[in-house]
Input
Amino acid sequence: MSALHENPKAPVEEMGVVVSRKEIAPGIIDLFVEAPKIAEKALPGQFVSFYCRDLSRLLPRPISIASAKEGKVRFVFRVAGAGTFEFASLVSGDVLRLVGPLGNGYPNTEGGALLLGGGIGIPPLLFLAESRKNAGDTAILGYRDENLFLLPAFSSVVDARVATEDGSYGVRGNVLDAAGDVNKPYQTIFACGPMPMLKAVARYAKEQGKECFLSLEERMACGVGACLGCSIKGKEGRKRVCKEGPVFNSKELSWE
Output
């Protein structure tokens, strides 16, 4: 297979080799893949397209990057269908076709930040926290219950706090219920999670007068902006989540 046209910011096609696979919570898979070309280019907030070995499933599956270093890329994803079930069944030494990194990631900002992750929106914020290495940052991770996947990894690099829907750990409620307890100053909010959460975070950021960058999750077909299948409404026209996103300044988006 030929690589995509390559420049310093362009994605590449690479045959990744599985290093390890582990289920770290019910239905949540932690996958390490040796893919040095993608690892070298990856930025927090970007994603990679996974291609199934079962050729009856033609469209790739977009999976966010949870970490990238030393030639390896870490992916943490939820099993949600036939494609992700296939990737969840991989074992060490298996080879899979990848294209990435794709999309635009989180910007570099100065000062402290508040990182808000909900559910499977938590993994891409780990890459951001690791990259920023800012002692002034606070991460609030929202879970359904006591299955606190990736919490130790976050705690090793950032002030990590937890909210659970059932109250089994940390603050009972969602990430914004826990945000009021943060007493460290911050200038920026970074968030990733389900759309209702992101809408609430955008409103909160506006009320607090903070810059806010949101990573959106949408169904994608091509992953490179050609099909327009993942477009959303922006204040200045339609925006493609795979191409102009998945990270957007909340001020760019129309929530109507």
Remarks:
- Confidence is low (pLDDT under 50) at residues 1-8.
- Residues 113-217 form a domain with the Rossmann fold fold (CATH 3.40.50.80).
